[in-house]
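Lecture notes, part 5. Sequence design as translation. It can be helpful to think of inverse folding as translation between two languages: the language of shapes and the language of residues. The source text, in structure tokens, appears below.
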């Protein structure tokens, strides 16, 4: 399937370690068969009181084979696991490279718990593909063929019995395991995803559940999901145990067949009795190498399902497609042009943006206003190439966004989104997110500009900024963005949680910092927009008005009515 072809391609890149692991596994398997065969032959020879040098040679051979088996098995495990971990590293790297720019859309389609299960659990499941799916058949075939050739020297019929046993263990037993396994494993994965989702939602909503007295109910749902997963895992484990038991039964059945056939051949004189123990020990040992075949179908299905879920997320993108090489320049202010841009979210009945045409000169200051749901934040995401327009064209510095490298757009942009993320650490840690180096004086100065003079660089910040107020989060995000060197400022409701005085002070510093840059400010409050070069009014995804503050007030249109309502609310307050 296409998804596993991706893994096969990655395995080719680790061909050196894989080749060494296969050679080590083959030597270990042959050494194991030879060791037990030589032991059986040694035991049989002692009955006939052979010369001392014969016993010395056989004893030394057994010791050498034991050391060879241990050394080659160690090399096989070392290189096979190193190849596996390298494969996982490559997979994680490519997965996150595709995941990052698609995150907004993915979060809209998938519950966060299910996405977490894919990122962690499904990637980890793919570690079994090489070790449990691709690797065992190669070793089984090589070791069995060598053993069959060796056995045919003594008896062609016993060699045929070995071939029969190999076919049964390689095809019949896995086929029996496969019956019903797909359905069982499907239920296990479904229950695991449900448990991850319930756990994530309970952790995210812990305080609300406590406040509304629903924690007990949610805990019961979590326990039910856990019990359902345990029950499905137990059923799947019993089915796998059936396969392992069938494999052991076949192995012992073939060994009994070798013993009976050997006895018959000894009686009719076609086989020397001294070789019987050797053949029986070879039979018992060679089937140990085929033991992984009994559980191969389960791991194969698990790997296929994990690869498919990852493909549904991001990995089905064409990996041969290279990123655009054109970079957005940061040497000058950025011009923005939108020509007939429309965008519609998946499964939404109406477009979020409809036929937007705008031209924003470099170095200008533009405010985008409008009611909630009018498409303002979507416009920012389109400019950042976080989403792709349904139709229309976006140009930055007269270059289509489709032709620009995503990383260069982000590098050239100073962005504050509605919900900024903060990491557990200190104020300093959350300011120093880029690779630039700043002195404590520079960091303190930017905190002063963001009206966070009461904060120290060493003050702790909890995960997601839980110990900060909404206003402090916004000011810290603004302080962080003031440290960047981008020439395009994209600010989405950066001061919505601030009081009027603090907001004006912060915006004043922002306009000073972006004096020579292009700035797009999304806001609901209309106070202070007199300093903007242009105001664009959106409603239901369309541009309904555009102009300077004075022009829009003179038109007495939608913006004028919004301003009157805002003034009335301020007067009543």
């Amino acid at each position: 399937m296409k998804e596993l072809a991706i893994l096969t391609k990655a395995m080719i890149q680790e061909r050196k370690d894989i080749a060494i692991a296969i050679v080590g596994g083959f030597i270990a398997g042959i050494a194991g068969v030879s060791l037990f065969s030589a032991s059986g032959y040694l035991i049989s020879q002692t009955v006939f009181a052979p010369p001392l040098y014969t016993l010395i040679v056989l004893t030394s051979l057994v010791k050498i084979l034991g050391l060879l088996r241990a050394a080659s098995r160690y090399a096989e495990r070392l290189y096979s696991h190193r190849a596996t971990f390298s494969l996982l590293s490559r997979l994680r790297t490519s997965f996150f490279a595709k995941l990052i720019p698609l995150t907004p859309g993915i979060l809209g389609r998938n519950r966060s718990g299910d996405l977490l299960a894919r990122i962690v659990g499904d990637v980890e499941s793919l570690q079994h593909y090489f070790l449990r799916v691709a690797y065992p058949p190669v070793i089984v075939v090589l070791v069995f063929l060598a053993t069959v050739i060796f056995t045919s020297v003594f008896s062609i019929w016993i060699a045929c019995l070995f071939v029969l046993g190999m076919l049964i263990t390689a095809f019949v037993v896995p086929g029996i395991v496969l019956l019903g396994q797909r359905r069982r494993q499907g239920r296990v994965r479904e229950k695991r995803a449900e448990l991850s989702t319930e756990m994530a939602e309970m952790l995210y909503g812990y305080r609300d559940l406590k406040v509304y007295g629903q924690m007990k109910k949610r805990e019961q749902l979590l326990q039910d999901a856990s019990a359902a997963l345990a029950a499905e895992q137990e059923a799947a484990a019993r089915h796998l145990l059936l396969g392992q038991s069938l494999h052991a039964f076949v192995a012992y059945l073939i060994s009994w067949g070798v013993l009976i056939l050997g006895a018959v051949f000894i009686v009719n004189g076609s086989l020397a009795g001294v070789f019987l123990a050797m053949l029986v020990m070879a039979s018992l040992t060679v089937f140990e190498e085929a033991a992984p075949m009994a559980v191969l179908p389960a791991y194969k299905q698990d790997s296929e399902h994990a690869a498919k879920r990852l493909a549904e997320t991001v990995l089905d993108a064409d990996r041969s497609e290279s990123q655009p090489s054109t970079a957005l320049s940061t040497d000058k202010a950025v011009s923005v042009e939108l020509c007939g841009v429309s965008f519609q979210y998946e499964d939404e009945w109406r477009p979020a943006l409809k036929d937007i045409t705008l031209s924003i000169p470099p170095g200008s200051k533009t405010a985008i206003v409008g009611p909630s749901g009018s498409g303002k934040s979507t416009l920012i995401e389109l400019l950042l190439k976080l989403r792709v327009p349904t139709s229309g064209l976006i140009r930055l510095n007269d270059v289509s966004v489709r032709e620009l490298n995503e990383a260069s757009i982000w590098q050239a942009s100073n962005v504050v989104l509605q919900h900024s993320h903060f990491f557990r650490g200190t104020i300093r840690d959350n300011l120093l997110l880029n690779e630039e180096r700043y002195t404590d004086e520079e960091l303190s100065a930017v905190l002063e500009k963001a009206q966070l003079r009461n904060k120290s660089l060493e003050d702790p910040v909890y995960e997601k900024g839980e110990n900060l107020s909404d206003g402090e989060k916004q000011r810290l995000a603004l302080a962080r963005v003031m440290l960047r060197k981008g020439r395009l400022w994209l600010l989405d409701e950066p001061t919505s949680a601030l009081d009027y005085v603090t907001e004006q002070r912060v915006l004043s510093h922002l306009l000073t910092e972006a004096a020579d840059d292009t700035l797009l400010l999304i806001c609901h409050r209309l106070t202070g927009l007199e300093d903007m070069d242009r105001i664009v009014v959106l409603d239901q995804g369309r541009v309904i008005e555009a102009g300077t503050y004075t022009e829009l007030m003179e038109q007495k249109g939608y913006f004028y009515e919004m301003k009157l309502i805002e003034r009335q609310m301020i007067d009543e307050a």
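The translated text above is only one of many valid answers, since several sequences can fold into similar shapes. Residues 315-321 have pLDDT under 50 and may be disordered.
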